[in-house]
Amino acid sequence: MGTTWKKCGSDVRSLANEVLVKYPEHRPLLDARVTFDLVFAFAGTDEAGDKTGHALTKHGRRAYGIARKTSLKDRALGRADCEVALDGDWWAEAKAAEQRALLDHELMHFCVGFEDDGKTPVKDACGRPVVELRPHDHEFGWFTAVAARHGEHSIERQQARQIMQASAQMLWPEILEPAAAAYGGEDETKVTISAGGEAVETTLAGLKNMTAKMKARQQ
Fold first, then answer.
1. Angle at 10 between CA 130 and CA 58, to 5 degrees
2. In angstroms, rounded to a whole number, what is the distance separating the alpha carbons of residues 155 and 142?
3. Angle between helices 10-22 and 96-108 (to 10 degrees)
4. How far apart are CA 101 and CA 91, in angstroms?
5. Which segments of the chain does DSSP mark as H helices, in order?
């Protein structure tokens, strides 16, 4: 049996609404009255009941969620403006905080198209707001073997270094927070963070600032 589908219940809908209301990045979706369909996907099973694959895949890899715009035809038939498909197998085992984070991630993909005035949403032939898909801040396709063979000349290592320098406080708090606690001395004490053979140097003051920003974003 292949992948099966089930409409998400009111609990998931309520959680999605909480996310939309809580974070300002989603406010344009609410103002434009963009609508969402939420659906669970469950992995197919064989005769013994064992899973034969993943519920959702993208580019050949497992995906816990997939966001997509619905077609004009689907809208005309009464479907929502957007669809979020969730891996129901993963969802059943995930913590509430992880579920909330995944919904926030998928909803972040949607943004509203505006007229030249920057305020009026563009409407489609059905009179619904036109929705665009926002790409990830970071996209990567890396081969470990290539990074090992070519080192700093590889795209893999160059991109990893860029992410480390730009977003370390958000993506690697388990490195930064213990380091800030472990280092003593004055704020100008040199701190070196190494990852993947590359090093980023900052000061204790800079490290504290990164950690403070990280905590503020998480609240």
1. 55
2. 8
3. 60
4. 12
5. 10-22, 27-31, 72-76, 88-93, 96-108, 144-150, 155-171, 173-182, 204-218
pLDDT digits (tens, 9 = 90+) for 98-117: 999 999 999 999 999 999 88
Tell me the pTM: 0.73
- Residues 193 and 161: their CA atoms lie apart, in Å, by 11
Tens of pLDDT, residues 145-165: 888 888 888 878 887 777 776
Of 56, 59, 58, nearest to 3 by C-alpha is: 56
**Which pLDDT belongs to residue 131?**
96
Residues 6+ apart with CB under 8 A from 53: 3, 43, 44
What DSSP state is assigned to residue 45?
B
| Cα–Cα distance for residue pair 162/154, rounded to 1 Å | 13
Strands 82-87 and 36-42, how do they pair? parallel
- Residue 126 phi, psi dihedral angles, 5° rounding: -90, 0
Predicted confidence (pLDDT) at residue 35 exceeds the cutoff of 70? yes
- Please tell me the distance from the alpha carbon of residue 34 to that of residue 20, in angstroms, as a whole number: 11
Domain boundaries, the chain: 4-133, 144-218
Q: Report the CATH fold assignment for 4-133.
A: Zincin-like (3.30.2010)
How confident is the model over 18-40, as a mean pLDDT? 96
Contact status, residue 113 vs residue 121, Cβ threshold 8 Å: yes
Backbone angles phi, psi at 168, to 5 degrees: -60, -40
